[in-house]
Specification:
single chain; alpha/beta; DNA polymerase, domain 1; TIM Barrel; two-stranded antiparallel sheet; 12 helices; 13 strands; about 35% helix; about 20% strand; disordered N terminus; binds S-adenosyl-L-homocysteine; metal-binding; 4Fe-4S; metal ion binding; iron; rSAM
Amino acid sequence: MTSLPLIPVTSDAPAARRASMPPQHLADLDLAGRQALVTGLGEPAFRAKQVSTHYFGRLVRDPQAMTDLPAATRDRLADQLLPRLLTPVRELACDDGATRKALWRLHDGALVESVLMGYPDRVTVCISSQAGCGMACPFCATGQAGLTRNLSTAEIVDQAVYLAGVAASGAVAGSPPRLSHVVFMGMGEPLANYNRVIAAIRRLVSSAPEGLGLSQRHITVSTVGLVPAIHRLASEDLSVTLALSLHAPDDDLRDELVPVNQRWKVAEVLDAAWDYAARTGRRVSIEYAMIKDVNDQPWRADLLGRLLAGKLAHVNLIPLNPTPGSRWDASPKPVEREFVRRLRDAGVSTTVRDTRGREIDGACGQLAAAEDNDTNTDRAGEAPA
Ligand code: SAH
């Protein structure tokens, strides 16, 4: 399968990057907040519902298409409720159109990406919670460049609304038209942007016109393991799925692969995961990137099996997607199969994740990293001799 550039949109180099939060947008506010804002502008409160129905109910993001609003009102509400947050830089498709990746430029020039994945029974979007990431996991493309800034609630939600609109247009052949699942597995550490991510989840699960009306169980929050935030998440009245990026069962190796482990050790992070499982009744997904000769030894499978046996957990093995210039490779298939066999023998439910979007730099952060390199190269080319 070949990668297919769909829309080479804006190519202008970003202005000097000074990270700053975007203007407020309706998706930052709950319905009551939107009503207060609208009445403050001298408009009747019902306009808040009307605009929300367009945005969340019909997935219309362009104010000019909201033709049931009088023109003057439309312009005023567009300014205050619907500022443009995401400018598409590039959209790519692969897997015969079942995977679509979008790269966005934010108002301050920061780049983030999202992925839409169609399956016969569901449509999933993978969204970003931060521009960049401060967690510095050495195998992850996003981790290499560091954190630019947190995304606003609306910048997070708008990724899902945009791609829900793409799905609704029938662009993902062989899949239902309605977005059903959202995973926070794009750029960033969602629990490091806690309040905005929680607000975004509330928008995703509130019924229309307040929100997108997704099922809580169909939202997955993936974390490196910020222990206090996991406990806090367990105390929200949300039963979203927690994914824990473990990647090693022993502290020696996890200290290197997931540097936040130097703060919260394997035993502590697993305790937090079991607390989450106990308080929500939800099975925790343990993410484990299979890295050749690094974390894929039979003894590590056995140790992982002992840690997880009898727990409300499922292991999701991810074949490593090597980042450009990486010293690491994916584990060979026979090694992966042996790892799976040992975990299952220990009574631990285990699957290997599909590798959607590989040929469009689908791995975390790779598209943004590639764009950044292109831009830097262009800029170097322009420098006066
Ligand atoms: N910061 C969060 C969510 C973003 S990454 C977290 O770490 O969980 C989503 C998942 O992709 C994580 O499990 C992450 O470890 C994994 N990942 C990152 N880079 C990868 C790569 N090159 N190959 C395979 N998985 C990768």
